[in-house]
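Our preliminary data section would be incomplete without showing what the modeling component actually yields. Below, a chain of 227 amino acids is followed by its predicted structure, encoded as tokens that our downstream tools consume directly.
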Amino acid sequence: MTIDFAMWYPIVRALHVLVMGYWLGSELVINALTHYVARTTTLSGVERMRLWDFLLDVDQHVRNAMIMSVPLGFTLASMLGLVTILGVWMWALWIVSAAWFWFMWLVHWRRKAPEGAALARWDWRFRYPLIAFFFGSGVWSLATGWPYPTVWLALKVTLFAGAMVCGIFVRYCIREAYKSAIPAIAADRATDADNAEFRLWMVRGTWALVVLWVILFTIGALGALKP
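Predicted structure:
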């Protein structure tokens, strides 16, 4: 069965652009909510944690976009003849991406369950080989022209690895906040030192978000301009 390129390419391209906008928009909302929770002095600890749980729900939109951008991006590259992911391999890419999507949501849904910590660790472990693959294949292509024959595509893939690293660093900051400040805040006995520690980790996470925004804008520009 042949694919009608003239019909499907604009559709897939539009979806890819929408997902990138969805990713950026979600990050901006999360950043604003994070700093409100970290800096507010009018909410009780219980109210702050209720808002924090909502923030973690919103954060799922970022992960939705990150995962969806992978099969959409490679589908576009395949349509342009830039990668040889065709037929059963393209189906496999979409199936693996769907499984990753499901597992990501399972980790979120079960985060407070007894197995939540173990699932979160596997979620982190799964990302490391993906980062290595995207970075390694991108840099190799910049040096040799394979498997991505154009510089702009190789740069996009390499930068995507950087975006994933930023996401892991943000999660690291959140994890450290859970270890140090959040227990006291949740128990409504936070001191000035606890609040300062919470703000410190959120500021560190924000710097990673700034780098992530730059990366995403650059990826978008590379895809649009194809220099």
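The chain is about 85% helix and 0% strand. The radius of gyration is 20 Å. Preliminary results of this kind motivate Aim 1 of the renewal.
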